[in-house]
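=== Structure Prediction Worksheet ===
Name of assembly: unnamed complex
Input type: mixed (protein and possibly other molecules)
Chain count: two
Listed entries:
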Amino acid sequence: MLIPFLAMVRKDLRLFFTDRRAVLLTFAAPIAIASFIGSITQNAGRSAERTRISVAIVDEDGSTISKAIVAGVQKDENLTAVPTTAEEARERVRRGTTSVALIIPDGFGKSAGRSLFRPAGIEAKPQLDVLFDPSRTAEVGMVRGIFTEHAMQAVGQEMFSGATGRENIQQTLNDLDSSSIPADTRARLRTMLASVLAYQEALPARPQGGAGAIFSLPYTVREEAVTARANIAYNAYAHSVAGMAIQFLLFAMANHGIEILLERQRGIWKRLRSAPVSRYLILAGKAASGALISLTSLLISFGFAMLVFGVRIEGSVVGFAAICVACSVMAATLGVLVATLGNSPATARGLTTFAS
Amino acid sequence: MLEIRCLRKRFGSLVAVNDISLTIEPGRILGVLGPNGAGKTTTVSMIAGLLSPDSGEILVDGQMLAGDRDPAKRKIGLVPQDLALYEELTAEDNLRFFGALYSLTGSALDHAMAAALTLVGLGDRMRDRVKTFSGGMKRRLNLAAGLLHDPDILLLDEPTVGVDPQSRNAIFDNLEELKDRGKALLYTTHYMEEAERLADRLVIIDRGQVVASDTLAGLYERVPAPAGGGRVSLESVFLSLTGKSLRD
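=== Predicted Assembly ===
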């Protein structure tokens, strides 16, 4: 059984290597595309300039608080904030040029300041409008978080050290008597607000958000890119080459499966089946030749990445080799599966598109 | 040598082969004639082991074929109706591969390839790719591929479809030489003149059943001679047995 099996494998390899287009597609195309994608992601990773989210910000309030928020958002290194009008902001999101728009409504500053200390129910909280592109919802959450940071900073700063804050606290103190808050809670709130007011009046005038700001983010952040091992720089080509190599492996092996169907259409299958060999041996021969082609493709892709882009195996070499072999066998058997499920080359191509 | 007893095959509600029995002796050519869809290819496929019969027996030298890997399959060579060749490979590579399926290697394979290519007159083109061959050359190579393992029984399923008269004649010469070497040949065809030239005995199949099995002379006697006194043709015998209605 070994002679027919080896003949099957040898014949498939010979057929594959005679087809220059197939060879080019299997070996060169993944390298070319992986190099292109790798160069983009590698440069993006190296750049000190981080990727920013584009935000349109509308200040309809014009208060000290809203101006401080806009200033904070514009300075934020995670955002590219463009001040604009409400109509323009909506249009920008609709066109997709901006993923999120924030609209600070008229009266936001005053109302937000009051809402910081007032118990719920006394006065409705101001509403911030967030317009977003539904295809980029992940960015909405990020923008909301960043906005909250700047809003809390601006409102807190103003409430504890600004004129608006003093007015708001005084107003809240005046309104406390007419509120429905329980008497003991009301007394404790009055004491606290009076203390804040006294503290504010004792403060010298300070610039908003400046070096002497009372409120700021209560922590600092240290960012660290975690790679396979300590002191190993991130190499985007390791990812792009692996991804493209597997992708093209699946294409090539699906095509290998379609070849089985073409052999059946041409009547070659009849000649194979008329020989004293089992159908399992014929399929095993196909799978083995496919696995060898796949393995060669993987080795060429990774070899190129190692030589040209300095990609290294940071884990176990044996493990890497085992994964390459497993991927090759998986891709080759996918080809056989495609041939089994697809009765004709056209159906098999449809299945391939679905599987890929 | 090859004996088929009460072979039957059904595809869903269609009975493709219904109780066919026939025998092929060494050094004889059995012609199998039949309209489209008569069951010729299904019969050949069952003998070659491509299809399993629903019932009936296929005996090679008195022994029943048992499964894909039965060594008795080595005694049978198939020349399928399609050009079952790899066009991108050379004639040599094709034959080397098909020979290896029968475990032929080394000098035995070289000798078998040389003999087969010489028989079909393609010895000087063995290193050329099949895609550069004419239709007739491909048909001859298709025949050579079925002969590599020196089978005692050769199943030829319409082996001259789409070839010019010269190539057809060359194939006939090859088949007559094989017959002279003692091979048993089963030859299916649509062409009456081929059957008249080659076959020692003819089996006419229609709708999956044998409607006649006789020598050429015996078949001629089944139809009255034309009124003008001319010779009875095999085509008139065929049409009288299978009818003139068109088949799917």
